[in-house]
Amino acid sequence: MPTVPNYQTQVSPNVAPTVTLQSTAPTAAFGGGIAEAEGKIADDLFKQELVDKAKNDTATVLKATNIANGQLADLASSKLSLKGENAVGATQSFDKDFSEIVKNTMPMLKNDTQRAAFSQHMGPNAFNYKRSIETHERNQKDEMLNNEFKTANAIQANNIIASYNNPELIGGFLKTGNAMADARGQVMGLDTDTVNQYKLTTNSKSLVGAIDASLDNDNPDKANQILSMYGEQMTAADKAAATQKVNKVLNKNEVAINVQTVVHQNIRADGTPDVEKIHSVIEQMYGPNKKQQGTNITYSSFKSSLVSQESGGNYNAKGAIQDDGDYAIGKYQIMKSNWSNWAKDAGLSADAEPTPENQEKIADAKLQPLFNKYGADGAAVAWYSGEQNAERWKNGEKDAIDGNGNHYSWDAPQGNAPSIRGYVESVTGNSEKSGKPFNADMYNSVMSKADALIADITKEKADKEKQYKTGLESAINSSASLSQALDVIQNADLPLHVRNSLTTAANIRFNTLSYGTPYEKRLATYEITGLKNDLTWFEAMKNKDARGVDFTTSEQIAWDQKADRYNEYVSYVHPAGFELMPKFAEMRVDVTASKKAQKENEQMFYTKAEKMAELGYNKAEITQTIMDTAKSQGFDGTWIVNNVNWKLLGSKGVE
């Protein structure tokens, strides 16, 4: 055992004492412990070396992985940004470029452990990027295909629209477009219903374009032909809207043609329009009491047309969900809320499934009675807006009513759907034969157009006569002798009063009278001042008549007296009054014609008021119609309103 030496008191400063270790044990006794210690140290050193190596490997792998991942992310981003044809082959090129990244990174890795760890890190990342790139490439290919189809469809649509004036060609373009749609569906794996809906929507849009092109180019007959030939390939909404648009133009043209025909077929031999007869014909065609003609359509044809309008024949069709949650189902678009009750009415159970067979049974149970009762038009009205409106349509009422009794026009659109009239015309496919209710606006429009044409013809005739007469007067004044002047008059096509006036002018021109007593003997009875006074009086009467003021009894008597006096002395007027004679004669004729026309027009208003009363219009509505019609004719209708026999109309229920 080592011992510590005795302490020496005298020790030099800063000098350490000498220590001697001594042991009583043998030296060999220490040998085994040292070997054990050395072995433990070596083991620890080896473990530390392994730890250091692992740390170094990890650091190296992480560094290599980070570099490679950055390059991989950039590579994936560049592939995902490729569009259209540039994206084709993106997945394959990604594999190649990723291999290059790995190849360039490998020199950084010093051993298999590092390389294995690197591969383990990079593999999943590359796999996920590759999946995203594969999806992107596939989507780009689909988009390219869709764009090709869109381009092809646009070409077909343009071809269809460009063929608006030759509807027979449209069928070939539709067939080609349908074949392309089938090919598209097959390539993209679309189901049959989706493909058919795509074809219907695409064809409908193109056909609407062709119909609009026909109308824009003033060819409604071609538009109607397109609608007739290809209407089955249009959506119900597009077909209904197009039908209403085409019929509106056709009806407008029909009205214009009818007005021209009616007026020109009723011109008297003297060239003046027969106003009374013209108004009578228009009354029969468009008036309140015109006959309501139903169509000759069969029930089978009617049902087929209604189906085309409602669903295009799709038993699985489903209408838009309404605010109350209700919606229409099936081929006939029966409201879901009605299905159970209608099923029971058809002899089925309330919970019957909407199979094709059950839909047909329920539709027939409802439609056939409506068709038998109201005809095709009325049945269509009932199916679209309720049986209460079928009754009103059949009875010629002026408008429809909703479930709350509120009135609305037959021509009012139903949201995004067509008006009742538009629906009926689309279903029956024959609006000319439809039993349309009386349309007061149409009636007034037709009557106004006819009156305007009558006024134009009357004015044109008067202008021509005036021009003709002026030419004759010039010829008379240029004649070398009375006989020559009288020959001019004799050969002219003139009314008697004008002939007499010109004959007088010729006699005065040559200062001689060929018949009757010389004018000097009549001056005491009918001097020039009397002629002037009569002329002034006639001017006052004409102004009064123009204001719509009736003549008094005394004025009527005075009118007849002055007219008789004029007729008696027309050939014996003093030469100084000659310049007044043509104006005097012309004014008398004009005022007389004006009075007659005014009376005829006035009677037309009274007749119209009675017709409107019979249809249930109130006093305010009748008054407004009279005022509007009078305004369209250029005068104030107040005096007409005041002279209507309201007491008589009151007996007919007018309030």
Give the SSE map.
Layout: H1 31-80, H2 90-105, H3 112-162, H4 167-188, H5 192-216, H6 220-230, H7 236-264, H8 275-286, H9 299-310, E1 328-329, E2 334-335, H10 336-345, H11 356-385, H12 387-394, E3 400-401, E4 407-408, H13 420-428, H14 440-478, H15 482-490, H16 496-509, H17 528-546, H18 553-569, H19 581-614, H20 619-632, H21 638-643, H22 646-650
Share in β-strands: under 5%
How many strands, what sense, and barrel or not for the largest sheet? 2 strands, antiparallel
Task: Report low-confidence residues grouped into runs of 5 or more.
Answer: 1-25, 291-295, 430-435, 513-527, 570-585, 587-591
Order of helices and strands: HHHHHHHHHEEHHHEEHHHHHHHHHH
Assembly type of the shown chains?
Answer: single chain
Shape: elongated
Mean pLDDT across residues: 76
Question: How far apart, in Å, are the first and last alpha carbons?
Answer: 145 Å
| Class by SSE composition | mainly alpha
**Overall domain count:** 4
Strand line-up across the major sheet: 1-2
User: Count the helices. How many?
Assistant: 22
Q: Give the proportion of residues in helices.
A: 55-70%
Strands, total number: 4
Spatial extent as radius of gyration: 52 Å
